């Protein structure tokens, strides 16, 4: 039977460090809620605002798939693998931390903020060789459809990660609806609304609301107004 877990935007954890304002859908840093540690393999969903010229200095990660999606502005990335890149709106960055990597993320611009989603997915294998990937998307390819941005397959659309997970972005016009079909029947789906409002699984979701959905094969998603959202299909690790 279909089951859902609703996370309204105003129930998320929040950290205000001045230069950094971060909303946490799941437990992170000083925010802990035993009922909101993860949704399956989806471990972190942070909605970050970084002031001009500021950012995260060099820090380590290991055994985690890290996905960054800029929503506004530009991120400057540098890591111990030798990568130095600018991640812009319409780009998606994927980093497999594996055996360990050091990296920094800074706002490239001094005169405006950068807003981005920082997402961590628990991998299906540990100790992999660290790797970095970055792709540029065409936003027109998600107009009234699902634009795949992450999958487990290097030969498939979007970037790939070490997990049986599929991510899609979508921009729906008001009144448009479309069915989502699960890729792996044991997976769950987490929908996060970036703007607008949609109805799914008998729930109305508004901007920055999230909904975890389990035990389904197909699901109808309808936009109540012009809406953008992110779909994250992940294995339901316990």
Automatic annotation (TrEMBL):
<dbReference type="Pfam" id="PF02678">
    <property type="entry name" value="Pirin"/>
</dbReference>
<dbReference type="InterPro" id="IPR012093">
    <property type="entry name" value="Pirin"/>
</dbReference>
<feature type="domain" description="Quercetin 2,3-dioxygenase C-terminal cupin">
    <location>
        <begin position="148"/>
        <end position="234"/>
    </location>
</feature>
<dbReference type="InterPro" id="IPR011051">
    <property type="entry name" value="RmlC_Cupin_sf"/>
</dbReference>
<dbReference type="InterPro" id="IPR014710">
    <property type="entry name" value="RmlC-like_jellyroll"/>
</dbReference>
<feature type="domain" description="Pirin N-terminal">
    <location>
        <begin position="12"/>
        <end position="121"/>
    </location>
</feature>
<protein>
    <submittedName>
        <fullName>Pirin family protein</fullName>
    </submittedName>
</protein>
<dbReference type="InterPro" id="IPR041602">
    <property type="entry name" value="Quercetinase_C"/>
</dbReference>
<comment type="similarity">
    <text>Belongs to the pirin family.</text>
</comment>
<dbReference type="Pfam" id="PF17954">
    <property type="entry name" value="Pirin_C_2"/>
</dbReference>
<dbReference type="InterPro" id="IPR003829">
    <property type="entry name" value="Pirin_N_dom"/>
</dbReference>
């Amino acid at each position: 039977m279909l089951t859902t877990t609703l996370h309204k935007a105003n129930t998320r954890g929040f950290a205000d460090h001045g230069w950094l304002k971060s909303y946490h859908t799941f437990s992170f840093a000083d925010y802990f809620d035993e009922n909101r540690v993860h949704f399956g393999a989806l471990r972190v969903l942070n909605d970050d605002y970084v002031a001009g010229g500021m950012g995260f200095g060099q820090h380590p990660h290991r055994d985690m798939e890290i996905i960054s999606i800029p929503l506004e502005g530009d991120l400057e990335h540098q890591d111990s693998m030798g990568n130095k890149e600018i991640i812009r709106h319409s780009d998606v960055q994927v980093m497999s931390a594996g055996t360990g990597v050091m990296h920094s993320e800074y706002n490239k611009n001094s005169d405006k903020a950068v807003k981005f989603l920082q997402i961590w997915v628990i991998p299906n294998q540990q100790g992999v060789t660290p790797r970095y990937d970055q792709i540029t998307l065409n936003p027109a390819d998600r107009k009234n459809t699902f634009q795949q941005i992450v999958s487990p397959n290097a030969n498939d659309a979007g970037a790939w990660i070490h997990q049986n997970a599929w991510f899609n972005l979508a921009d729906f016009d008001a009144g448009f609806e479309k069915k989502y079909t699960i890729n792996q029947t044991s997976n769950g789906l987490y929908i996060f609304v970036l703007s607008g409002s949609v109805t799914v699984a008998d729930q109305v979701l508004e901007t920055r609301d999230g909904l975890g959905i389990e035990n389904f094969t197909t699901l109808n998603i309808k936009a109540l107004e012009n809406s953008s959202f992110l779909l994250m299909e992940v294995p339901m690790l316990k």
